[in-house]
Q: What sequence folds into this?
């Protein structure tokens, strides 16, 4: 099922719902989300805790499936995809960055990047990815030997090394102080600008919204409003 | 309130850990079952033996004479003797309609119309012969069962060459014949050996023993020196052709029973000790690991303000609960196995009943060992968990060493990152890896130990029946025959070659060490009964010395070249010192050999042959058997094929049942260990693997990492387990050295292969289960929180 709009949008979500069943109780995390995300965009997702941000991001990234609604990725209907297709989708197209880094403790920074580049078709050179996040010097260190900010930058290097079409970041600065956070955001901005990677960042920090092309506000499992920034601020200009 | 929530957590943990808990409980149950089974059966056999001896007045001292008058007053006067009885005991040949094989019989007199005071019989069916009847007989129950004979059936006995028809009136068991082994055999053959109890009057007439006896039994007071009594008996019986009195330790049934029970005791001590030790070790390891995976939870509980003691008690309860489930299962299974095994032993040790009971001390010691191991493992782990600051504990445990792994440095750096992950995970935590490997290795080891007895017995059979004994049959004569008998045997159709055989009852002595046996005399360089050295090469038998079982030489504290005092018990009762020409490697019995020429020289007054060894032309065994049956002078014939068969059957049914049970238990322990290991690997890697799934690794790719780790552990453990198993087997072999059997330390390649196969299969199955779990792995859950 393809149409012109679906071809143009990177993601096209229509009526996405996600219901969790906890015994008899139902938790409606998403209650009908319509959203289009365009190529090369930098989008920030804002919303109260429990509003459904992570749920939405996980569905977009193929980590989770919607209970109802339709989701297209560049004309591919992800709602119909099986586990193997979703795995392939993640492998080829998506880079993830999480609040808790999720690096493999037994591998060095470089190896944590290599573990991804080994399984994709046209990866970036692993060292190149590390250079992009300014961690070339620390390539042989293990996660336990790196600070939180450094670990997060390794996670970003790992996410971008496969040259993904989209980069999905769930609270990438959540565990970092503002100075380190800005360093990480700087990297994200640079990648978005230089590589044209569609980037979606979840945050609780409204200030970060100022660096986005568009800001999507979520509340109670629905899109509350979408706002386009006339002027994008550079991360260096942000402070909180 | 606080404790109530901990209890809820306890139950939840137990439920979450049910797979692992079941595995741990299985390990414990395996060890406990082995312990309970072995000890319960052993205690049952010993208690039954004691009770049977006491209630049926088994004599303490025995003496065989040629012919002594019935008046025993002077013997009864010997201080310390409480009860004395003279009987007629004599070898007979038994014939059974429809069974054309030689049957060796032993006729034993009963006082007419009674059972006498000593060595009473237990009638399991029928009744005693009527007083003064000469054709009524009570036969051994085992023989009756082997031929489905009932009271009222008829058998014949060839008594001094005369065929006599007998009517079976009863079936009996006796403390004297619990282990019924015919002369020259190694294991009972109930088809071909029969005890016949007849009236004293009947045997008096048949054997020309009016007013006389040829066997004396006595009961002595508890506080008496048996050696003194034996000395006095020998003195009094000297004129009646005595072969020397002896105590229970030389009585055939008692001797075999004692040694079999001693062997069983070794098995019942060493095997359960190994099993329970392994189970305790594994429990210890598993408990420690279980708690390590709960490190962050412990930290959080502590952060909330729970005391170390409360937390310690919590985990202790968890582990003890699991261990207790294992103990209960193990006791139940052990009891069932004991009943099965006990019933089987009763086929071979002919007791009228079996006092089998589960004893409190047995259960208590198994429980104590298990719980102590659980306690130790848990306390250690809990202590290390609570002694670090909560903040520290909430972070993942740091890897022990950083850097390239040995294998990477050795040039495997081209490996893919997933393979590197496996190697590093294993190498970074060497202690943990080593413990896992040791656990699996131990289960390999107990599997090997379980197969050890079978291997050793097969080896013994091979050496005994294909290298040492070349004769097809061994013939024993009633009276010593002249050398002409050799040519008569050789002339029988089908008989290929005959060698004479002579026996001389002796006591071998070296100072305080002595051993009562019969020297077996063979022609120089005997081709049939070969004696072998340590390397299983034939030692040529030659004149001028004694050839002793290595174990016997050691028992007498003698070496090759030393002289041993030989006291002949028959003929002119000569005593002389003879050199030891060589020591020989044999596994059954304590044997002494010399040449027939030497024996004639040292004991010139008795020149004859007591038996002969024959080889038979192929396919002619049946004809020779029939021909031998017709020769009245022959007291017994043992065919090698029959002996081998009954040996194998006995081993299959007794020892190998024990082996089968222990393989079963070892196998379940191995499965539990391997499965538990796989589950732990999965639990420890779940988060990492989920991350990889997020990054786009497929199910199969992630599974390969996990399988890699599990497989590496198993493969590393197998050779280690081989070594460990060999060590355990050596321990058992050492414990099994007795007069009757010396079990060689032999392990066959197939035993090693089987042990390896079991753990590999266990690994593959466990891997399947873990992979199934991997499918259900929630990628999101793993990413939600820090480790
Ligand atoms: N696995 C789950 N089972 C049940 N309910 C869940 C599950 N995951 C999320 N929820 C519920 O779905 C709702 C949305 O959760 P989500 O994680 O998307 O929120 P969020 O906007 O990311 O919040 P935060 O900013 O705190 O991370 C919440 O009410 C949450 O409790
Ligand atoms: Mg969230």
A:
């Amino acid at each position: 099922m393809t149409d012109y709009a679906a071809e143009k949008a990177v993601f096209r979500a229509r009526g996405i719902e996600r219901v969790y069943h906890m015994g008899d109780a139902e938790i409606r995390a998403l209650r009908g989300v319509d959203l289009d995300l365009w190529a090369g965009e930098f989008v920030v997702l804002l919303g109260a805790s429990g509003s459904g941000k992570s749920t939405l991001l996980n569905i977009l990234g193929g980590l989770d499936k919607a209970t109802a609604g339709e989701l297209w990725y560049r004309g591919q209907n992800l709602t119909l995809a099986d586990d193997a297709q979703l795995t392939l989708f993640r492998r080829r197209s998506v880079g993830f960055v999480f609040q808790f880094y999720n690096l493999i403790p037994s591998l060095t920074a470089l190896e944590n990047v290599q573990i991804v580049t080994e399984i994709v078709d046209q990866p970036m050179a692993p060292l190149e990815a590390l250079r992009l996040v300014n961690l070339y010097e620390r390539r042989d260190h293990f996660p336990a030997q790196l600070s939180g900010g450094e670990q997060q930058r390794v996670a970003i290097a790992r996410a971008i090394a496969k040259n993904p079409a989209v980069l999905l970041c769930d609270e990438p600065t959540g565990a970092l102080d503002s100075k380190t956070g800005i360093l990480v955001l700087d990297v994200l901005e640079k990648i978005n600008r230089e590589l044209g990677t569609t980037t979606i960042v979840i945050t609780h920090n409204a200030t970060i919204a100022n660096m986005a092309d568009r800001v999507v506000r979520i509340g109670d499992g629905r899109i509350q409003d979408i706002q386009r920034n006339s002027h994008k601020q550079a991360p260096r200009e942000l402070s909180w | 309130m606080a404790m109530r929530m901990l209890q809820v957590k306890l139950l939840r943990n137990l439920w979450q850990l049910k797979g692992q808990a079941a595995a741990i409980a299985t390990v414990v149950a395996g060890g406990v079952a082995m312990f309970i089974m072995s000890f319960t059966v052993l205690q049952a056999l010993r208690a039954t033996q004691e009770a049977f001896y006491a209630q049926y007045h088994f004599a303490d001292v025995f003496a065989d004479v040629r012919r002594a008058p019935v008046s025993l007053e002077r013997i009864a006067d010997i201080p310390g003797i409480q009860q004395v009885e003279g009987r007629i005991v004599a070898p007979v040949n038994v014939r059974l309609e429809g069974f054309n094989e030689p049957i060796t019989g032993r006729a034993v007199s009963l006082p007419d119309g009674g059972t006498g005071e000593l060595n009473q019989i237990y009638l399991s069916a029928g009744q005693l012969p009527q007083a003064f009847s000469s054709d009524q007989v009570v036969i051994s129950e085992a023989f009756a069962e082997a031929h489905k004979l009932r009271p009222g059936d008829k058998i014949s006995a060839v008594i001094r060459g005369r065929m006599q028809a007998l009517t079976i009136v009863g079936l009996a068991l006796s403390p004297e014949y619990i282990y019924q082994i015919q002369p020259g055999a190694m294991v009972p053959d109930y088809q071909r050996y029969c005890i016949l109890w007849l009236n004293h009057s009947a045997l008096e007439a048949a054997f020309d023993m009016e007013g006389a006896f040829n066997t004396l039994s006595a009961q002595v007071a508890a506080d008496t020196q048996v050696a003194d009594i034996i000395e006095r008996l020998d003195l009094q019986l000297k004129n009646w052709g005595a072969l020397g009195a002896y105590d229970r330790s030389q009585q055939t049934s008692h001797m075999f029973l004692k040694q079999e029970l001693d062997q069983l005791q070794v098995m019942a001590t060493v095997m359960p000790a190994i099993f329970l030790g392994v189970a305790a070790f594994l429990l210890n390891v598993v408990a420690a690991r279980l708690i390590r995976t709960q490190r962050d939870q412990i930290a959080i509980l502590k952060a909330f303000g729970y005391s170390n003691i409360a937390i310690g008690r919590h985990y202790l309860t968890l582990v003890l609960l699991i261990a207790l489930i294992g103990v209960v299962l193990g006791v139940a299974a052990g009891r069932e196995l004991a009943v099965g095994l006990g019933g089987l032993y009763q086929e071979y040790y002919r007791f009228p009943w079996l006092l089998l009971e589960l004893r409190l001390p047995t259960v208590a010691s198994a429980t104590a060992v298990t719980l102590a191991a659980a306690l130790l493992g848990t306390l250690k782990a809990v202590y290390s968990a609570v002694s670090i600051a909560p903040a520290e504990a909430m972070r993942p445990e740091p890897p022990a060493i950083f850097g390239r792994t040995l294998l990477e440095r050795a040039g495997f750096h081209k490996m893919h990152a997933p393979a590197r992950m496996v190697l590093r995970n294993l190498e970074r935590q060497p202690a943990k890896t080593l413990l896992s490997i040791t656990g699996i290795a131990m289960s390999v080891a107990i599997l090997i130990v379980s197969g050890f007895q079978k291997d050793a017995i097969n080896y013994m059979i091979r050496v005994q029946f294909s290298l040492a004994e070349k004769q097809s049959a061994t013939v024993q004569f009633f009276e010593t025959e002249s050398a002409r008998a050799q040519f008569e045997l050789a002339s029988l159709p089908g008989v290929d070659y005959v060698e004479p055989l002579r026996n001389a009852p002796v006591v071998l002595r070296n100072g305080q060490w002595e051993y009562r046996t019969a020297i077996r005399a063979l022609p120089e360089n005997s081709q049939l009964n070969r004696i072998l050295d340590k390397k299983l090469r034939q030692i040529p038998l030659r004149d001028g010395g004694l050839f002793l079982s290595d174990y016997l030489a050691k028992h007498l504290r003698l070496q090759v070249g030393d002289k041993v005092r030989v006291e002949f018990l028959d003929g002119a009762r000569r005593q002389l010192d003879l050199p030891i020409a060589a020591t020989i490697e044999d596994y059954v019995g304590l044997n002494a050999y010399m040449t027939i020429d030497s024996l004639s020289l040292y004991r010139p007054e008795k020149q004859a042959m007591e038996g002969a060894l024959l080889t038979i032309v192929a396919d002619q065994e049946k004809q020779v058997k029939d021909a031998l049956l017709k020769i009245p002078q022959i007291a017994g014939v043992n065919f090698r094929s029959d002996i081998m068969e009954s040996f194998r059957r006995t081993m299959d049914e007794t020892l190998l049942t024990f082996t089968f049970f222990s393989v079963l238990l070892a196998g379940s322990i191995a499965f539990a260990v391997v499965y538990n290991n796989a589950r732990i690997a999965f639990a420890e890697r779940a988060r990492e693997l989920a991350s990889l799934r997020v990054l786009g690794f497929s199910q199969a790719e992630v599974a390969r990492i996990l399988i890699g780790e599990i497989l590496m552990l198993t493969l590393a453990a197998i050779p280690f387990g081989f070594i460990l198993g060999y060590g355990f087997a050596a321990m058992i072999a050492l414990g099994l050295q007795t007069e009757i059997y010396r079990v060689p330390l032999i392990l066959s390649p197939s035993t090693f292969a089987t042990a390896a196969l079991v753990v590999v299969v266990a690994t593959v199955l466990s891997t399947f289960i873990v992979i199934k779990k991997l499918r259900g792995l929630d990628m999101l859950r793993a990413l939600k929180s820090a480790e």
About this structure: Chain A has a mean pLDDT of 87. The two ends of chain A are 45 Å apart (CA to CA). The domain at 39-63+83-228 of chain A is CATH 3.40.50.300 (Rossmann fold). The first helix of chain A runs from residue 4 to 8.
